[in-house]
Task: structure prediction
Amino acid sequence: MKTQAALLTGLGSDFTVAEIDIDGPRAGEVLVQIEAVGICHTDLAARDGVLPVEFPAVVGHEGAGRVVAVGDDVTKVAVGDKVGVTFNSCGRCTTCTTGRQSYCERFNEVNYGGVRADGSKPLSRDGSTVGGLFFGQSSFARHALANERNVVKIDDDIPFSLLAPLGCGVQTGVGAVTRSLNAQKGSAIAIAGGGSVGLSAVLGAVIRECAIVIVVEPNQKRRDLALDLGATHAVDPAGGDVAEQIRQIVPRGVDHVVDTTGIPSVINSLIGAVAVRGTVGLIGVPSDPAAGVDLNIITALTLGLTITGIIEGDSVPDDFIPELVELYRTGRLPLEKLVTTFEFAEINRAVAAQHDGDVVKPVLVFEER
Result:
């Protein structure tokens, strides 16, 4: 069938809205009519070559919409169901079968490989293949082909524009604090970066009743928003050594650090602000895939330091996304303070607005705002 999509035509290109062809669903697959889709840094990392995609390509991995067709053997959802679309996983490896599917042993293959298990590609244009199946969905399009495994049925009344970012950015930030780090009531946490993931981590810290929540962010508007969302302190990195600024607030250091920037110098400074037995959670994707951090072994030993990588907030999407929806419904997850909607055709303006810090989480919509 024909559908509208935002194409990346080459490395670093703008998005071009064009008509493409998309296959109908095969066994285990679900065709979703997308009503809203969030723009995430990972989409832009693919655009810039940090993550592998085949150009021309359709990316997008925070889709939300309604099921319009299902393949054979699909039982989890039916035509007409409202769904959020999230990351893909194989469902068979050790991590998938023990509730850790965000660390699926085939994560790169099933999220970035761009092909079905039989090697076929579901997207094309003028008879030539188009890179797709990004995160098992490629939802920068009016229709997205996903798998039964990476769609989550949602019965609650939540706007598509707020459901969409739960598929990656929000579940990553909230989950990093509540699941990956399991921050406890009364603890101290520092969060680097005031984008959608970092501010979602702030919301996670508020949900967990952390006593001290420090956000490190150069943008004044985002620092103000962090405080509005419940952060207790907002630090401007231009104000001096970040570790020293944090220790002025918490002399013993923080129990947890969440880095959403992927910038080695930022991570190095945060390590200096960690308390004994503290944990540093790494979320941000670096612009250089070979980037690393300096870790003094004696310091790590003395502190009993833990550094952990975090993918998708250790989410089990079928459980966690409905939990996030319920938090929104009860007023504990004010997603509307993070989201700004744009018509789908305005995708390049939305990307620029996010880059310039004018918006936190741009969400593309096909319906009237």
Summary: The two ends are 27 Å apart (CA to CA).
